[in-house]
Design a protein that fits this description.
five-stranded mixed beta sheet, 11 helices, disordered N terminus, iron, transferase, 4Fe-4S
Length: 362
């Protein structure tokens, strides 16, 4: 218990008087909150917390009367912390908490002053009640304010973490791919320039195009213009991508069915990045001879897959691909979809994308 302000002996009759009017005071508080059209009165959870808090404040006042000095029970910390967090989560402005505290203070003081005799002893005890009431309320307001601020700071931190994840995803999917293609094409240029000059020249041109695309994506990412351009055709985007990869030793096939316009540009854009990442993973890590990409549009959903006959991996000891696998899952979640990855050593890998059109993706 915290306390100071010695003001005199306690009077059991006054404590009983306060207890006799407890229900009346609480009812007046709830009624005045409603008359004020406070958001606290409209929210059942906030109202229940406010009334529980008010009950505890009356307990503090009763303890103050018994001790003859101001007392605030330690129990205030838990409920005040809950009040602050709940009101921050529901968007209740701090001004509303101050207004509610004022309403509560007036309800207690008004009730007591209207019913107490006006003798000097009663006024002395009323002074003690008012001081105890003020201390209990302000202590709880400070605790609730700290909780309110802590909740908002946590939300800011979560937003910062999510933004960092988004930036990492954008850099990996929109810039990393182009740099990887350019690097691989330049490696092929070195491989072919002595024996196949025409082929080597084509590799340089592909590397050049990949660098130009990466520069465009970099400008889009840095200027917050993502998605840089609405994706008009998922099939054309995949075909363009397949033109940039080294397919000399890999049989890559693409099958697209259905009407693409059933999916929104956002769904097509995110799906393209997911399928491109799955294909890139297959080529870079699986060493396959065949890769099959399927995309099926229906009026209510998109189903797509990337399947290879490469090395595969043990799902129990799934390889860590850094941002790549996580990026596919996060992009699927953005459009309300899911990705499923199945693989076995020596039997290739199968990546499945499913996007229903009932949510964000429509």
């Amino acid at each position: 218990m915290a306390g100071d302000g010695e003001l005199g002996p306690a009077v059991p009759d006054f404590e009983a008087f306060l207890e006799a009017h407890r229900s009346e005071i609480l009812e007046a508080y709830a009624r005045n909150l409603a008359a004020l059209d406070s958001p606290i009165s409209r929210d059942p959870i906030a109202l229940r917390q406010a009334m529980a808090n008010a009950e505890q404040i009356l307990d503090d006042v009763a303890e103050t009367l018994r001790a003859g000095t101001i007392k605030v029970g330690d129990s205030h910390k838990m409920i005040a912390w809950e009040v602050g967090a709940t009101r921050a989560a529901s968007g209740v402005h701090p001004d509303e908490s101050l207004r509610a505290a004022s309403v509560w203070f007036q309800a207690v003081v008004t009730c007591l002053m209207e019913r107490m005799p006006g003798d000097a002893e009663s006024m002395r005890l009323l002074t003690l009640v008012v001081l105890g009431l003020e201390r209990s309320i302000t202590t709880r307001i400070r605790e609730a304010s700290a909780s309110y601020s802590s909740f908002l700071l946590d939300k800011v931190h979560e937003a910062q973490v999510e933004e960092r994840r988004r930036i990492a995803r954008e850099l990996h999917d929109r810039l990393g791919h182009g740099l990887s293609v350019a690097h691989r094409q330049l490696e092929l240029y070195d491989l072919h320039r002595a024996t196949k000059p025409a082929t080597a020249t084509a590799k340089v041109e592909t590397a050049h195009q990949a660098i130009l695309e990466t520069m465009q994506n970099l400008r889009a990412v840095t200027s917050e213009l993502h998605p840089q351009e609405p994706l008009n055709s998922l099939e054309k985007a995949l075909l363009y991508y397949l033109e940039t990869v080294d397919m000399d030793e890999v049989d890559i096939r693409l099958r697209v069915s259905g009407d693409e316009t059933w999916a929104s540009p956002t769904v097509r854009d995110e799906s393209f990045l997911i399928l491109r990442e799955a294909t890139r993973n297959a080529l870079n890590h699986g060493n396959p001879t065949k890769v099959l990409i399927r995309v099926a549009f229906a009026p209510h959903e998109l189903r797509a897959s990337v399947e290879d006959n490469g090395l595969g991996f043990d799902e129990g000891g799934r390889r860590s691909d850094g941002v790549g696998l996580m990026s596919m899952q996060e992009r699927a979640a953005i459009i309300g979809g899911t990705t499923t990855i199945t693989s076995r050593p020596g039997h290739g890998t199968h990546v499945e994308l499913y996007v229903p059109f009932s949510g964000l993706g429509t």
